Amino acid sequence: MMEFCKLSAAEIAEGVRGKKWTAAEVLEASLERIKKYDGKINAVVTLCEETARKEAAEVDAKVARGEDPGLLAGVPYLAKDNFCAEGIKTTCCSKMLENWVSNYDSTAVKLMKEAGAVLVGKTNMDEFAMGSTTESSIFGATLNPRDITRVPGGSSGGSAASVAAGYCPIALGSDTGGSVRQPAAFCGVQGFKPSYGQISRYGIVGYVSSLDQVGPIARNTKDLALVMNVLAKADYYDSTCDAYDRPSFTKALEGASLKGKKIAVLSGYDKSHVAPELLEAIDKTAAYCKEQGAEVFEIDLPVARKHAVACYYMVALGDASSKMACFDGMRYGYHEDGKNLTDMYKRSRNNGFGKEVRRRILIGTCILSRGYFDNYYIPATRVRQMIADEFTELFKKADLCICPIHPQLPYKQGYVDDKPLRVYLGDAFSSISNLAGLPSMSINTGFTQEGLPTYVQLIGPRFGDDSLLAAASEIEKGFGAPECASMEGVC
Amino acid sequence: MARQVVIGLEIHLQLNTKTKLFCECSTDYIGATPNSNVCQICLAIPGTLPIINDHAVELAVKMGLGLHCTINDNTRFHRKHYFYADLPKAYQVTQYEHAIATGGYLDIVVDGKKKRVRLDHLHLEEDAGKLVHPTSDGRLSGASYSLVDYNRGGIPLSEIVSMPDMNSAAEAIAYITQIRQLARYLKVSDGEMESGSLRVDVNVSLSNPDGSLGTRVEIKNVNSLKSIERALDYEIARQNRALDTGEPLYMETRLWDDVAGVTRSMRNKESARDYRYYLEMDLAPINAKPEYVQKIRESMPEMPWDKRDRFVEQYGLSFEDSVKITEQLEMAEYFEKCVAQGAPADKAANWLMTEISRVLNEKGICICEFGVDAAETGRLIAKVAAKELSNTQAKDVFAVMIEKGCTLEEAIKASGASVGRVEGGALEQIVRKIIDGQPEVAETIRSGEDKKGGKMKFLQGLVMRETRGSANPAEVAQLIEKLLK
Ligand SMILES: [Zn+2]
Fold first, then answer.
1. Which residues, at least 6 apart from B51, have a Cβ–Cβ distance to it below 8 Å?
2. How far apart are CA A465 and CA A225, in angstroms?
3. B49 and chain A: CB distance < 8 Å anywhere?
4. Which of B421, B457, B459, B419 is nearest to B438 (CA)?
């Protein structure tokens, strides 16, 4: 049998279009691999076998009729469980939505379908995308396919683990403060967070309107670019999704070069807080860029360095408390009766949400309350603007910025319970691109001797997603795109 | 001790759009099956985002321009948070500090005096759903359950907030009436208070003798002009009494009880509530660029007060008549079409306010549903003015026009008025016959007893009836006089 798990999305689609294999065959291989390994890894929470078979058959029928089956013809993919897909459960891995079936397609799912991609299932995540380890899901923790004693990162941990485990070549996640890039990094694959406003957020149960962005996870940059070609479109249903003509992201990769590129390497932070393997990854990346003819220099972003985490949590949690208010037990989701209306809200929300979600809602409610709003939220939005300004200045001098995506190698399981604040601080490097609305990706630079992935973050200017992907593809050539994990050794 | 009454009003106008403010659901909720006009967006189904209804923005801008406001570009929405069963997102999307229109004013006329009421702003917001409490008396307390209808949730409203510039109930009523008239002229809202398209919250206080503002009380639940007037009268008296007796007044929200005719304190901590106003990041700022605003400005009809003043000027109508004729745009347009057909302005106005208004009242319809074309009516009035038809004939003809919806000519034929005028020898014969039939009356007139001319009028009437109005009344009078000599 063909080892589809080793193929990229581009190769699979090409094979389907060229009748080398059928979408149905590819799908069965994907399902088989999920069934074989996911009992252990727990990356997939809902498998949509029936609808997926129907979708694959439609793609094959199109090919048979000689019609264009789309850019992602027959490519199986998984979506984080906060992407709405009609008729399929969207639980956000919370008791609040445990049995909730969406009655509409998110724009992302709709566009993937139109491009011929086949939705195989929904992936595990931190409850309502609030977390960095995918351990707060009501369906239990996901394990990291590169090392099952470690977390896959979060909150899109299930999506990253699925790609690393070879379930499918691409998966979709949502990134609020690093939730696509950090788990991609932890699982040893590539994760991309586009510019804010690049992809429609419609139908994604996000939690921070001004930070959330849909992002693809894949094993190579070409597949990321391919998904970007499909998803990056203005959308009537999302007024924050910019109405401008997107470039071809795949075309940007052709003939890309690092020669003459100006690359800023972030400095000024306390390097003792960053794992030596990850500092080394940055040095190696910088050295490679130099070799390829890029001009590399160091840069400090003092405001971002000092205030990003505090600013991020002020902005994010304030918004989260507002966004999460619609889960009131009235129209859908978890409901408990109460003595009166207020009591009903209290019981439903208290027992429907998990600990981390409740914590964030409470902090956020406090931030937006009279008195606190002016003293905390407003200054945070000013700091946010200052961080964005710092980057604007930076990108007058540089084409690209290299920095850590995360200060540590993948955590051992249970770490978050020991050191929750430490885990919050892990967002210091990843959240800056969300605050500034910038495109950013985590790229794998290889593996340690113990087999743990190493990674760096690349940040580009706003709507410079195409050139960022182009530069990333060149850097990827230096390190080699990661293969999927050899699951035999893991499970 | 002269305390001045100080009144400020907040008017909620339901905008006349086909779809809701943030989704494509129908706004046609009256009589609709509960929860039939709802979608994933207006029910706040997870993952949905609002989409701004451009038409609602356009209507708000139109109303703002009509009220002489400044239209602001890049205005934003806020979220106003509170948990309630009729509010699906648990926040209402409203314009909190970036209203689309600010400033402005409205000139009202009370007792012949013009007065300017300044406005604070006009903003856009979504309506909430509706709760139904199924107890026998329809009250919340005692109901074992409540039902929610989200059809109204998300319907676009514009809230017009005035400055506290009104000093009497009459001024408040004039202000509301004129806002409603403007909304209807601009086709921004139907402005019906009964159906809730126009809702008013009243703020009232009495100024202290030193001129400083007194305790402000808000009155909600006033559903008609009459109840606003009554509520204001009651509240002014209550506050005066409290100030006289030294009773304390609280800054509070009071509900108007229309049955009991009193205002009652709502007794909840509404004012202490923290709404956590927060920018709505899911909606981009509204673009109301100068070119866009200019385009809307150019599409605006003549303002009602301009029309009113022009009618006085151009047609020589009295101010009062002009107010009545221009009250409704359709009525004013009907009037001008009549005049364009040669009907004298005063006669056309009179005809509208008597004949036509009577029919409209009887049928309970508006002039826009009136079946007779203004051009036909205009020509009819012109014929009367030219003495080609008597008043009586014209009324007969008009009745036919209303009944059959036919043209003037057809109606004249059908009513028999087209047989031609009875005059000369034929008319003399009829007059003679009438006089012969009324010898006592004829004698009274001959002997000069008919000092007030009543008997004369009586004979004339009989002749006109006999001729079915087709005689010239002046000729009839002449003939009677001649034959009685
Ligand atoms: Zn709707």
1. A236, A237, A239, B22, B23, B24, B41
2. 9
3. yes
4. B459
Q: How far is CA A30 from CA A52, A119, B75, in A?
A: 11, 11, 49
By 3-state DSSP, what share of chain A in percent is helix, strand and coil, each rounded to 5?
45, 15, 40
Helix (H, G, I), strand (E, B) or coil at A174: strand
Contacts of A77 (CB under 8 A, 6+ apart): A9, A112, A117, A118, A119, A120, A168, A169, A170, A171, A172
The shortest C-alpha distance from A103 to chain B (Å) reads: 8
Residues 6+ apart with CB under 8 A from A378: none
In contact, A43 and A164? CB cutoff 8 Å? no
The answer to whether A91 touches A100, Cβ cutoff 8 Å, is: yes
A203/B contact by beta carbon, under 8 A: yes
Q: Does A238 touch chain B (CB under 8 A)?
A: yes
Distance (Å, whole) CA B330 – CA B459: 42
Residue type for position B459:
L
The number of beta carbons lying within 10 Å of the beta carbon of residue A393 is: 12
3-class DSSP state for residue A100?
A: coil
Q: Two tokens at A232?
A: 């990056």
What type of residue is A33?
Answer: R
Q: State whether the Cα torsion A37-A40-A43-A46 is positive or negative.
A: positive
A100-146 pLDDT, tens digit each? 999 999 999 999 999 999 999 999 999 999 999 999 999 999 999 99
**Would you call B52 and A239 a contact, using CB atoms and an 8 Å cutoff?**
yes
Helices (H), B278-407: 290-298, 304-315, 319-326, 329-340, 345-351, 357-363, 374-385, 391-404
* Cis omega (within 30 of 0) for bond into A155: yes
User: With pLDDT > 90 as the criterion, what percentage of chain A qualifies?
Assistant: 93
Residue B39 Cα, ligand 1 centroid: separation in angstroms? Answer: 4
What local confidence, expressed as pLDDT, does residue B447 receive? 84
Look at the block and give the residue holding tokens 């087209």: B418
- Taking the CA of residue B364 and the nearest CA in chain A, the distance in Å comes to 42
Q: Tell me: pLDDT of A83 over 90.
A: yes
B83 and A342: CB-CB below 8 Å? yes
Residue A291 to residues A257, A443, B400, Cα–Cα distance (Å):
12, 18, 99
End-to-end CA distance of chain B: 73
Whether A94 and A136 have beta carbons less than 8 Å apart is answered as no
- Nearest of A356, A361, A238, A92 to residue B83 by alpha carbon: A361
pTM of the model: 0.89
C-alpha distance from residue B325 to each of A142, A418, B350, B355 (Å): 76, 79, 10, 13
How would you class B136 by CB atoms within 10 Å of its CB: exposed for 0-12, middle for 13-18, buried for 19 or more? exposed
Helix (H) or strand (E) holding A192: strand A190-193
What mean pLDDT is predicted for residues A427-438?
Answer: 95
Find residue B8's DSSP bridge partners.
Answer: B203
CB–CB contact B276 A370 (8 Å) = yes
Contact state of A239 with B274 under an 8 Å Cβ cutoff: no
| Confidence label for B296 from pLDDT (cuts 50, 70 and 90) | very high
- The distance of B172 to chain A (nearest Cα, Å) reads 34
Residue B200 is encoded by which pair of tokens? 């008013």
A46 φ/ψ angles, rounded to the nearest 5 degrees: -135, 125
Average pLDDT of the residues of chain B = 90
Q: How far, rounded to the nearest angstrom, does the alpha carbon of residue A454 sit from its chain's CA centroid? A: 17
Taking residues A204-212, report their average pLDDT. Answer: 93
User: In the structure, what pLDDT confidence band is assigned to residue B388 with cuts at 50, 70 and 90?
Assistant: confident
What helix, strand, coil percent values describe chain B, rounded to 5? 40, 20, 40
Both tokens assigned to B290: 């100068």
Q: What is the pLDDT of residues A33-50, one digit of tens each?
A: 999 999 999 999 999 999
Tokens 């009543």: give the residue: B454
